[in-house]
Amino acid sequence: QTSLAIEDMLVAAKKDLTTKLTAESLELLLLNKWLKEKRKPTTDINWALAGDSGEILEKYTRYFKKKWSNEAAR
């Protein structure tokens, strides 16, 4: 799955000092894209469990709940 590959790439890139800042910027762009799409975190549980991208899902879940708290409670 494309999403899984992107998240795994970002996780790996954040571990390298030469790519960390760029990876963090790209991660923020990706999270904002998902927020605009109102993409529910539970939709992507499978990719988070399949790779090292669990930290991205946790961060996105916090952002999602903050922005869409009424919908997240459903």
* Radius of gyration from CA coordinates: 12 Å
**Overall domain count:** 1
Question: In DSSP terms, counting alpha (H) and pi (I) runs of 4 or more, how many helices?
Answer: 5
Q: What's the N-to-C terminus distance?
A: 27 Å
Instruction: Summarize the helix and strand pattern as letters.
Output: HHHHH
Q: What is the general shape? A: elongated
Structural class per helix/strand content? mainly alpha
Please report which band the strand proportion falls in: under 5%, 5-15%, 15-25%, 25-35%, 35-45% or over 45%. Answer: under 5%
**Mean pLDDT score, rounded?**
80
Spans of at least 5 consecutive residues whose pLDDT stays below 50 are none
Q: Could you estimate the helical fraction of the residues in percent?
A: over 70%
Let me know the number of strands: 0
Q: Can you summarize the main beta sheet?
A: none
Describe the structure.
The chain has 74 residues and is mostly helical. It has one domain. It has five helices and no strands. The longest helix has 17 residues, at 20-36. The N and C termini lie far apart (27 Å). The model has no long low-confidence stretch (mean pLDDT 80).
What is the fold's blueprint, element by element?
Layout: H1 2-14, H2 20-36, H3 45-50, H4 54-67, H5 69-72
Helix pairs in contact: 1-2, 2-4
Compose a concise summary of this entry:
The protein has 74 residues and is an all-alpha fold.
Throw out a few tags for this protein.
74 residues; mainly alpha; 5 helices; 73% helix; elongated
